[in-house]
Amino acid sequence: MSNNLAVTVVDNPAEHRFEARLPDGTLAGLAAYERDGGTVIFTHTEVPSEYEGQGIASRLAHDALAIARGNHDRIVPLCPFFRRYVRNHAPEYDDMLVTVPPAE
Predict the structure, then answer these.
(1) Exposure winner among 4, 7, 40, 74, fewest CB in 10 A?
(2) For this UniProt entry, which residues form the secretion signal (predicted)?
(3) What is the pTM of this model?
């Protein structure tokens, strides 16, 4: 990530989202999802404007996918950002995909 902005990505199942948090606890980004059994359906990614361009969304995608892999989850990247991220990093996540929606 540029600017060496330190973030930690955690799963917040109560809110149905992965969160990128700064060391002081500030929310710097989120990836909303729905669950269907062992499948994580990524629906939306959001980074506040003050943190845009610092690699937070990419870090969020990378770490959320790593957490999903660690849980042996499958994924459906409905969110346009996650869909691009997964495609740009093929074949790294191909084994986790349930389906890839058509490009917009």
Answers:
(1) 4
(2) none
(3) 0.90
Give residue limits of the domains in the chain. 2-96
Q: Token pair of 36, please?
A: 């269907």
> Residue 41 pairs with which residues in a beta bridge?
34, 76
Cα 46 to Cα 50, 73, 87, 92, distances in angstroms: 12, 22, 19, 23
Q: What are the CA-CA distances from residue 11 to residues 40, 43, 63, 90 (Å)?
A: 12, 15, 10, 23
User: Under CATH, which architecture does the 2-96 domain have?
Assistant: 3-Layer(aba) Sandwich (3.40)
pLDDT tens digit string along 17-42?
Answer: 999 999 999 999 999 999 999 999 99
- Which residue in this structure is represented by tokens 């540029």? 2
